[in-house]
Amino acid sequence: MKKQFRSFNLKLEGAATEVTLQQILDEFDKFFKDYQNEIYASLKFLEMKQERDEKFPDYYSRLKIAVTECNYGNLANRMVRDKIVQGLLDKPLQESLIRETARKVKILQDVVSDCKAAEHSSISAGIADVFTNLATVLLLE
């Protein structure tokens, strides 16, 4: 901290004979505002998983926002792709993506498309089940 303090370009204002505490605090604020803890950001990113009842687009958005703070550079899309697969709640889809990528590498957009399609078909299947059950109940009455 002393080293950082010495590097500040503090100037006396007006007729002041000393630098004010507020000037020092402002310089430290500027220093720490620019400081990014990419290890902490990476830790948070790598711990992310799809939450129960979280729709895939919401999970994907959280990952895309979080990865920007990690400074992965050209690897950001790959990290998001791998994190999507690792953190999915849908284990059959996860296994399918792993099997498919063993044969042919998938880019991020391929994985995102597969996840959206799987979620959509799961929702459609659930709606179809509701209508089937409703029809069965109505026929029994």
Outline the structure in words.
With 141 residues, the protein is mostly helical. The protein has a single domain, classed as Non-ribosomal Peptide Synthetase Peptidyl Carrier Protein, Chain A. It has seven helices and no strands. Helix 4 (56-67) runs antiparallel to helix 5 and helix 5 packs parallel to helix 7 (108-140). The longest helix is centred in the last third of the chain and has 33 residues, at 108-140. It is elongated. It comes from Araneus ventricosus.
SSE topology sketch:
Blueprint: H1 2-7, H2 21-34, H3 38-47, H4 56-67, H5 76-87, H6 91-103, H7 108-140
Helix pairs in contact: 4-5, 5-7
Short description:
The chain is mainly alpha-helical and 141 residues long.
Which key features would you list for this structure?
single chain, 141 residues, mainly alpha, Non-ribosomal Peptide Synthetase Peptidyl Carrier Protein, Chain A
CATH 2nd-level architecture: Orthogonal Bundle
Q: Helix fraction? A: over 70%
Main sheet specs: none
Q: What is the SS-derived class?
A: mainly alpha
Task: Give the percentage of residues in beta strands.
Answer: under 5%
Order of helices and strands: HHHHHHH
Provide the low-confidence segments as ranges: none
> What average pLDDT do the residues reach?
82
End-to-end separation in angstroms reads: 79 Å
CATH fold description: Non-ribosomal Peptide Synthetase Peptidyl Carrier Protein, Chain A
**Rg measurement, Å:** 26 Å
Shape: elongated
Q: What's the total helix number? A: 7
Protein name: Retrotransposon gag domain-containing protein
